[in-house]
Amino acid sequence: MRYGWSAVVATTLAVATACSGGSEPERTAPVSAPPAPALFDTALEALVDSGRVDLSPTGNRVITGPGSLLDTSPLEVQLDGTPRWVLPAGQSSWLVVLDDGSSVMVDVADDGNLVAADTNIAAIPGDIPPLATSTGVTSYADTYGLFADPLPDTRVVVADDALVALAAPTDRYAHAVLGDALEASAIAVTTAEDGSTVLVELEEPDVFEAVSPMIADVDANGTSEVVATVSNGDVGARLVAYSLEDGSVVAESEAIGLGNRWRNLLAVAPVGPNGEIEVIDIQTPHIGGILQYFRANGDQLELVASARTFSTHTIGSRNLDLGIVTDADGNGQLDVVVPTQGMDQLVAITRDDAAEGGTREVGRVDLSGTLVTNLAAAENDSGVSYAAGTSDGTLTVWP
Fold it and tell me: Residue 125, exposed/middle/buried by CB under 10 A (0-12, 13-18, 19+)?
């Protein structure tokens, strides 16, 4: 396997088109001119300033501030359709994308009561980021234009003055649990300095099995890395953190050991009992999902705690945002909030080395149906509020 940044490739403004029938995707030839600085700046500003279903422009599913998921009486709003995605739209508003592609704006008062549910929104308003549709999460057209060969459904994330995306789509790993047979074989980084793009590429049979990379400081040295799930048909998935400076491997976990076994990377956060930085995933979310916590030790991501049984994904879905890291009970310690295997409850789990497996359940909340949207969260004047949509057409808000 080869790691490290490849030669600099001038960025094209065209998006690659993938072939079908088992062949390698058709690649778009790079052009000599980098994108205009204004295009880069516009894309960067849009990504940083707007709400996202993955909570942060870095792709890291962490939200700070005290939450009250476990002790707040929820507000249930009946929608005219099945929700697919939920986006925060201000201090007390939520934009819900329905399965027919229409949108509903739900406003909640300071006292937790419903103000209005506007069901006449035909499309996402211009001042709300177009990150969600009925079929999947997309990114901004301008940011796609900064990459020559992006994965068609990748989300672009931000690292300081760089935009990072999954690229070089391939069908060489036929797992297809994320909605199609295409996965990425490279991570692309476009920088503001000169608009050029560099790649960290995987050799066969590896692929990046995700919809976006994640930017986070994995080894607590003050420098961010890019983290992703790397998979192949021989040994399944492992977590790998790469240097943003040169693309070298900083640390990686062991592979699961069987092909067609996936890790859903959730977050990188100071969730350890003493605030240690840990990398969090759900191993095999479709098969008795195991919540796992890894900590960097040299060039290894070592498993330090685990709990079961949870799930953060449905086969064929591009929704990888069913789990988040948040202070769910407002006690000052970050928790992991994930659905149960049945998707009918949300469970808050905290790290506790004195407990079995190194984790302790803080509490759980019942849902009115099965979870079918991302778990959304937003900071407001009183802390963090939450929202989620269920199969019975309900939006539940914990103000």
Answer: exposed
